[in-house]
User: Fold this.
Amino acid sequence: MADKDVVQALEESFRKFAMHGDTKATGNEMSGKNFAKLCKDCKVIDGKNITTTDVDISFSKSKDRSSRLISFHQFQNALHDLSRKRFHELEEEQALEEIQKLVAGKSPIISGVTKTVSDGAVRRLTDSTKYTGQHRGRFDEKGKGKGKAGREDVPNNSGYVTAYKGKGTFDKKVKEDN
Assistant:
């Protein structure tokens, strides 16, 4: 059987991958998606001897019929099953040790996370002092957005047409005529 340190490292990896991407996971059971991620991230899937289909089949064999999750014990059985395929040229015990070395102590690799870009093009496109036309009116002198006032035309309720030059002179004319 495997060394206690190796089993402890395997259990640590199991818990990390079991909880990856699932806020409700306790770390005691692992889904098929996370098992496939573990196999991919730990290089158990080599593309020749083991493919993602083999991983899915091994997961299905190891889990209970009605369950969608596997326990740590079932995880060890799935790894044992995969070790015979991955290291078919080695003895069964050696193959199991090799696959345990691949998985032990590993954590999920987070890939595809978008990083912010701050190159010249992005800086130029987001500099509000260079905006023209109607977009210029959406920002104040400091470059801070005006909010709703910058997006909507505030109606002029003075009673005059927008382009009327004699605005405010009506009352004066009425007084003069009287």
In short: The mean pLDDT is 83. Helices lie at 4-19, 32-41, 52-62, 72-86, 92-103, 120-125, 148-151, 170-177. The first helix runs from residue 4 to 19. The beta strands are 30-31, 69-70.
